[in-house]
Design brief:
Strand order of the largest sheet: 7-6-5-8-1-9-19-2-20
Distance between the termini: 15 Å
Bound molecules: zinc ion
CATH architecture of the largest domain: 3-Layer(aba) Sandwich
CATH topology of the largest domain: Alkaline Phosphatase, subunit A
Structural class: alpha/beta
Number of strands: 20
Oligomer: single chain
Largest sheet: 9 strands, mixed
Shape: globular
Radius of gyration: 23 Å
Number of helices: 20
Length: about 550
Amino acid sequence: MALSSKVLFLAMDAGNQSLIREWAGDGTLPNIRSLLARGLVGKTMSLDGLYEGATWPSFYTGLNPAQHGFHSLKQLKPGTYEFCRRYPGDFIRREPFWNYLSAAGLRIAILDIPLSGISKGLNGIQMVEWGSHDGVYGFRTWPPRLKLEVLTRFGRHPLRISCDSYGRTARDFYSFKNKLIKGVQRKAELTIHYLKKGNWSFFAQVFSESHCVGHQCWHLHDPRHPNHDPEIADYTGDAIRDVYKAIDGAIGKILEHATSDTIIFFLASHSIAHNIGGNFLLSEILERLNLAKKGRNGIAAKKTQSPVKNIYAFFGRGWQKIPTTIKTPLKPAVLFLHNLIMHRVRSEDFLLLPPSISNIDLKNSKCFPLLNGNPVSGIRINLSGREPNGLIKPGAELNGFCDEITKDLLSIVDWETAQPVVKSVKKTCKLYHGEYIDHLPDLLIEWNDEILLGSLGISDGKGSRLRMVSEKIGVVEGANTYCRTGEHRPEGLLIAVGPGIKAGRIERTVSILDFAPTFSDIFGVKIPYVDGNPISEILEMLKYKR
Ligand SMILES: [Zn+2]
Ligand SMILES: [Zn+2]
């Protein structure tokens, strides 16, 4: 039996839950403040070690990453040394929960849920990437004719290209922030338009402007950040606060159009805070430990050769070697060219791998890095029986190998502070179980959160150098060139408000896996096996509301 006939789900993609609470508390975010006061509030947790890529796929399938196999847009093909681009909507075999709701005859609107594909035949409407951080498919809709209607009525999101950009000036940051704010406002209009149009059972909208601003502008918010420049921050204002404020305003306007019988869910998915970690030095660390071998891997290299990509790769390596006297006057022109090429490379959908992977002879290495984001690096072990040229035997040899690499990584310290640079090394198979486990990294290297990392791609590049040392690796050092100053964390925030739900706190942490079974239980719709559990605190209140 259905416990409610209407659910409105609104999310701040990668919204930082501590900042949301703080700014709700001081009145900056009055609408979220009101939700917090009226609602049932709980902490949420995304997937340990794999939250950068797996958060949204696990949200909409209710499955742990080993059951759906998605952790990054570029993944290793199991049984090969080849990387391929993974399209989550096509690659993930399990259908999202809204397909089951739709099949049960409910009217559904799914707008901009990140990393999802189009659900053909959905009983309602869907938009994929009208304004999302991750550009996988480009803007698509269900039904297809909806696309033209949306574009004619609302245009495109003002931020046309990927949010990554190098060498932004104060003005660039200011204009970037304003584009995001305009995007939020336009998205609110679009949301209200479609919310008013249909008699929806489940309606979802995700604001990803919080994701983009968090990656690009953390240093404008956080005075402790190495790239924080008070003059620039004075000019731009706290871009994160301003974008969150815009989203709060949008939520307020949308909620004015929600009918009184609607259960509202607010989710800040997987947080963002200062960038950390030595991911960009991991291949060198593995080389020093005699685990990874330098060299062009035939298969991995083949796909990375194109003139555009070679120029792009130059910026990662060659630029740093040029003397400053030559570099300074050239910088604006070079950065312009760099951004242009970077966006071209992305839009052409090339399989661009960072040198940390493309310069490793994967076949002849005992292990090598995979792409898994910066705060937690992923490592693949070249395992006999799984990889074609496996060098480590399963069983005792594998266990010994894992123990040793764990010990070696944990013994590396930061040159300046003598703090360990690695916080933990975890085996993925201890965390997750499922038939797609071979698609995931074998080891997850969590970097120390206390060591703040700057970027060479931001103003004077302060704090971008990391120097680390251990007996086994000697000194390994280098500069982080990636432009992002904020990176993800797994924590999030949930608020549920509506008839029957009493204000209060959920005294435990809710998993991101729990949403799919909660929604299906609210509507009394059966979905196949999921790893999450329905959020009983909410369901109990709905059951006994009368
Ligand atoms: Zn992100
Ligand atoms: Zn973005």
